[in-house]
Amino acid sequence: MSPKEKELEVNTEKFEMIAKTFQGLEDVLAQEIIALGGEEVEIGKRMVSFIGDKEMMYKANLHLRTALRILKPIATFMASNTDEVYDRIKSIKWEDYIKPEQTFSIDSVVFSDNFRHSKFVTYRAKDAIADYFQEKTGKRPSVRLTNADLALNLHIAAHTCTLSLDSSGESLHKRGYRVEQTEAPLNEVLAAGMILKTGWRGEKNFVDPMCGSGTLLIEAAMIATNTPAGIYRQGFGFEKWADYDEELFDKLYNDESNEKEFEHKIYGSDISPKAIKIAEENLKSAGLSRYVTLKTLPFQQYTQAPENAILVMNPPYGERISSKDILSLYEMIGTGLKHVFKGYDAWILSYREECFEKIGLKPSEKFDLMNGGLDCQFRKYEIFEGKLKDFKSEGGEFKKERLELDLEGETRTKKELRKERFTGEKKSVGAANRDRRPASAGNRGDRKSFGSGPRSTGARRDNGFERREGGFERRDGERREGGFRPRVEGERREGGFRPRVEGERREGGFARREGSSSRRESTFKKFDRPERGERREGDFEERPRRTYDKSGNFRRNAEGKLELREDGVFKPRGERTFNPNRKMYIPGREENPSKENRSAEKNED
User: Fold this and answer.
1) I need a surface site. Which of 53, 165, 425, 466 has the fewest CB within 10 A?
2) How many CB atoms sit inside 10 A of residue 291's CB?
3) DSSP secondary structure code for residue 478 in this structure
4) Tens digit of pLDDT for each residue in 9-49?
5) Which own/partner pairs from 325-332 qualify as long-range (CB within 8 Å, at least 24 positions apart)?
6) C-alpha span between 343 and 446 (Å, rounded)
7) Which residues pair with 162 in a beta bridge?
8) How far apart are CA 63 and CA 253, in angstroms?
9) How far is it, in rounded angstroms, from Cα 263 to Cα 260?
10) Which tens digits make up the pLDDT trace of 277-292?
């Protein structure tokens, strides 16, 4: 076999690779890998594994927008302590990967109760590699934290240890186009993942009204023109490997066959002139300035939005702004979306629920994403004019048609079935169930009848109710069956009371009519009641009303003037005596015993 054929065989040899990413972007990364030609793609937690050859590894580093690293596993083993890790790593033939005069670095990720200190695991792995070369050659490679010739990744989950070569070197989010940045800029991998989550691929305009240093704008321009994500990088980790194929990588790097022209526009704005200036510098560095329009403009000053566009924004979360101001900001965002960006799909990234509530709109989609250690949400708002009902009826994305099976087995949408129910074209399952009502049931709005028959359709009387079988009817002057007839004034009712005649005297108290039940006469007091206006014998004389002041020494006379009492002493009410001439007794008893006990000292009032 010639050296050329041997090299070709090595390049086409397939192996497993692992692409690391942020939580929430695994599905987008898997789609990218499949589009590049990856095989046996499997999604894990913050990672996607796949099979490919050396060319696939180079393409993954160069083109994947949502990958942080591309790892190539070289050893997988079981270990329960650091000594076992040391022994297994030392047993690897390290001269196939690194030379004694080169440098290396190890990044350890540990998820295990048996390995509590990831730094100690890293220290023992470093010792294993250094001792291997020391025993073999008497020399040992050095450890370098940055820009090492060989970057290694050690992943431990419970007892399973995976040692991989890091083909990326520095994280792939470091694209190489950023010249300057604002405070807390958006990660490039996260920005690209957000845009890919929306489904936008450059088929319409793109708007970011809070662009900051322009990360979303640049990533959008690269997606729209299909520019490789790693085209601006200074280098990759695999370029220092012993089996690096420079010719193959140059071929992939200079391939422009998949790039395309972007016929729309990207609009960016920010309230900070400094941020706009930084965004301009970064766009020039990426060579994408011709696709992006920048201007200094606060969001609340937007009066007109570009047509046929999508909006993606990453507003402040309130970490460096007061809570009151941040809520006002999101309230202003909601107002602007409703009044200015009508017809848009607006995507907003934030992590505080109270901020989303202030927007005042219902999201149609939600995605959980991580941004700088914060559990954020990426929400989609469909901005439309008019009512939601009308928007759905016009085929808006909120509407999700479900298929139903009618009585004859034909499959149609709910809208079609609903139309048939009201037009009577064809009965559906729902319509059939609705018609399963008793024959005696009336139309909607009818009152229930008391009998078995339907309600009378005759006109309702103003002074009563129409006759219902089994019930009552009310007619003027007519007695109702089983009920009462109206009272006629002055008419004597059988078994009842007759009306009182004015001035009529009732002997011995209250008179009862014939046939009425009478009470015992002794239970009533008898009064000699004279004719109206006539003075009763032995009764009190008419005297002016006495009104005493607070001291009790004065009273008001008939003219309303205060006059001094004759005795000049106020007598409490309880010491006053009754008029002995007033006859008041209870029939059937002796003289009232209370009179005998009254004191002779008491005076008449």
Assistant:
1) 425
2) 22
3) B
4) 556 899 999 999 999 999 999 999 999 999 999 999 999 99
5) 326/352, 326/355, 327/354, 327/355, 327/358, 328/358, 330/355, 330/356, 330/358, 330/359, 331/358, 331/359, 331/360, 332/299, 332/300
6) 46
7) 76, 155
8) 10
9) 10
10) 999 999 999 999 999 9
